[in-house]
Amino acid sequence: MLTEEKRKSLTFWLIVIVCAAPVVLATLTYYFFKPSKFVNYGQLVQPPIRLDTVAVKEISRPTAESALIDTNESRSEITNVGDLKGRWILAYIASEEQCGEECENTLYLTRQVRLMTGKNRFRVERAWIMFQDNPLIPNTNARDFKGLWTLKTNPKQSPFNSQPQSFVGVWIVDPMGRLIMRYPNAADPKKVYKDLSRLLKASRIG
User: Fold this and answer.
1) Closest by alpha carbon to 129, among 54, 43, 193?
2) pLDDT tens across 114-170, in order?
3) DSSP E strand stretches across 53-147
4) Per residue in 73-126, pLDDT tens?
5) Residues 6 or more apart whose Cβ sits within 8 Å of residue 95
6) How does DSSP classify residue 83?
7) Cα dist. 148→13, 66, 104, 125 in Å?
8) Smallest Cα–Cα separation from 107: which of 84, 124, 83, 91?
9) What was the pLDDT predicted at 1?
């Protein structure tokens, strides 16, 4: 049996261990199990880049998979990105003369991500924004292009005028018409969806 003195000593050390454990665990976590600095998969743009005033020429518009095609506002021609304002946009900005395999895969990725948002999909539009004067547009009824706004813009205007090539890729545009997150063309659609779903959940607009 434990003596009274040993019992008191054991009690003391148990109290010390219980009090010290959170500090020890926090120290180990900080130095050896650091959490990722960012939870988002895409590259967050700080500060956001305004795109709403960028002038565009409408090449084609969706006939399905879009919440804007049945509204009065959408019946007029799109003349700037701001005309799509009020919706989240998965935008593919491209510089190639024609939509090859990489382009098609990227556009299909944006369609997958939009459909994955389920009941929120009508808060999201898809846009293919290109710099070429005479792009070769594939059949817009194909699976990759359903629900897609195809737009042509002048790369000499702001914000592209400094380095238009640096804008090539997949972007999330917020309902205010700002570029806020960027992805590579071969991005993981599930991870892009997680980013977008967090934004949709947190946002009261769009």
Assistant:
1) 54
2) 999 999 999 999 999 998 765 555 554 565 577 899 999 999 999 998 788 899 999
3) 56-60, 88-94, 124-130
4) 556 788 999 998 789 999 999 988 778 888 888 999 999 999 999 999 999 999
5) 130, 131, 132, 155, 164, 165, 168
6) G
7) 67, 8, 12, 7
8) 91
9) 55
Amino acid, res. 121: R
CA–CA gap between residue 53 and residue 49 (Å, rounded): 11
Across the range 36-54, mean pLDDT stands at 86
Distance CA 84, CA 40 (A): 25
Amino acid at 164: P
Burial class (CB in 10 A: 0-12, 13-18, 19+), 189: middle
Length of the chain: 206
CB within 8 A of 7, min separation 6: which ones? none
CA distance 97 to 89: 23
Q: Residue 127: which of 68, 76, 201 has the closest Cα?
A: 68
Which residue's entry shows tokens 């665990």? 25
Does the reported pTM lie above 0.85? no
- Give the span between the Cα atoms of 137 and 106, in whole angstroms: 15
- Across the chain, mean pLDDT equals 81
